Amino acid sequence: MPLDESALRARRAYDSAADHFDDSALGFWARHGERTVERLGLAPGAAVLDAPCGSGASALPAARAVGPGGSVVGADLSTALVSSRGRRRFARG
Question: Cα 46 vs. chain centroid, distance in angstroms?
């Protein structure tokens, strides 16, 4: 399904910010993601959908919570956040 103009504008905005998305000035994303996952009380083996996942601020803590028996799928309009920032973040663990 093609994206409408507002979705394309959002994608462009987040793609253009992707290089700085995990900078310390934007550290609230990581704090918010960690706290959100803590509040959910995810069980080992659970399945999680994180949308919009950005660079993985919630998806990575969720993956730790559900462990190797669980699964986390992340989706986002920003291809730059998912394909570069998110993948690097997951590789670091």
Answer: 17
